[in-house]
Design a protein that fits this description.
The protein has helices spanning 2-29, 33-37, 96-104, and strands spanning 39-49, 55-56, 64-69, 74-80, 106-116, 121-129, 138-146, 149-154, 162-169. It has an eight-stranded antiparallel beta barrel. It has 171 residues and is an alpha+beta fold. It is built from three helices and nine strands; from the N terminus they run ααββββαβββββ.
Length: 171
């Protein structure tokens, strides 16, 4: 009888410990959308839909970029496409054509961010932007998060039209 009682106690203890592990795993998966966004994300694609309906890859086929959403509610985002090298020695020596090409292939801004959990939207309060007309603007994007991939739909990018930007979590 003693062996049976010990066996039963071991099975119960194992079940309880295993159950706690399962409970912990479930709790880890129940992070808020905001908690899931915190971190560093690398740019996968940025597809712009012009006001006339034309699909455009404004940053080229292999865009580069990063967005960092800090737990403190601050963010910074930079996207860069193909740009010509300047003939001059410094960035201040760019010709009008070189500067125009850089502006067309670059987007960046920083500020604060917040999430509406119910609507699955991300709102950015742009304190500064390489496009000065967006300084101080507030933009809301609908977002979809699937594992390590984040898609943000921007209804009013500085390029006009609308955009879908896809990011992958940096590990």
């Amino acid at each position: 009888m003693k062996a049976n009682r010990t066996t039963v106690l071991c099975v119960l203890a194992g079940t309880a410990i295993g159950g706690m592990g399962f409970h912990s795993a479930v709790l880890a998966q129940e992070k808020t959308l905001r908690e899931q966004l915190v971190g560093t994300w690398s740019l996968v694609s940025n597809e712009n839909l012009s006001p006339s309906g034309e699909r455009r890859q404004l940053f080229g086929a292999n865009p580069q970029g990063m967005v960092i959403y800090g737990a403190n509610g601050r963010y910074i985002q930079l996207q860069i496409g193909d740009r010509p090298k300047f003939k001059g020695a410094t960035r201040l020596d760019g010709t009008a054509e070189e500067n125009k090409a850089v502006v067309r292939a670059t987007a960046g801004h920083f500020g604060t961010w917040s999430v509406n959990e119910a609507d699955k939207t991300l709102t950015v309060h742009q304190e500064g932007n390489v496009f000065p007309n967006d300084d101080g603007s507030v933009q809301t994007r609908s977002i979809t998060l699937a594992g390590d991939e984040l898609a943000a739909r921007n209804p009013s990018p500085s390029s006009g039209g609308s955009a879908v930007v896809v990011w992958r979590r940096v590990k």
